[in-house]
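Human: Here is a favour to ask of a fellow structure person. Comparing notes only helps if you start from a blank page. I am asking you to supply a protein in sequence and structure-token form. Write it directly below this note and I will take it from there.

Assistant:
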Amino acid sequence: MDQTLPVTDAPFSDPTRSAPSSSGAALSDTLRQILAAKYLEVQARQQETPLGEMERRARDAGRPRPFTAALCNAVAEMRVGLIAEVKRASPSGGLIREPFDPAGIARAYEAAGAACLSVLTDEQWFQGTREHLRLAREATQLPVLRKDFMVDPWQVFEARAMGADAILIIMAAVTDEMAERLEDTARGLDMGVLVEVHDEAELQRALGLETRLIGVNNRDLRSLTTDIAVTERLAPLIPADRIPVAESGIRTPEDVRRMVHAGARCLLVGEHLLRQPDPGAAARALVEAA
């Protein structure tokens, strides 16, 4: 099986060279740049806080909120399991919301019936911070996913230390070996794991992990184009013991119904909600669409 990036026990080997994805396509320049910057960022921050100290902080952070269970409950009750996202900007969309109030947005999502939150913590490309996650989590009772480019287990301990209840693993950004290491670290901390795929080859790799949550990203990280038909193609291929989560490009109640019809009752939605005058009302419209 082809690997995506040369992520090994020496994770800071050169990630900037073009590498084939699981589907045989080269990584986009944007994704290569993001990952190259992330390797350097994690390397520098690990020098500031060694692994042993970050692990101690993670284990002192208390028990995570049940992220996977929150989505499983929504599916069992035939509700839309909305993971509502808190982010200030994105590489494709630029600045999304200003002024930006993570706590207020999180409270609005909770009142609208969201099952979980997703908070961007990448600073360079999404203008996110660890403080955004802390503020959003403290403002609600919802489980929170740390949305970032995870390339080293150190980041998983950091995620729990900052209060995150779950992490995202992007199969286009890591090898199978690193995906397993990230998942094992998260499971050792009782954290949830959402693994993200965009095509059939990445889906088969993701099914080698234990997590039940399979995110189908409708945005191609190589071309940055978005098509919700990707979920319609991949969701039927996901085994019944897993939970599909449709990500990106979902804007209208009709989009929600298309995703549910395809088998994805859980959704991760961010940019659409945050561009609305009232993100909570926009979230409620999607939660109540199915």
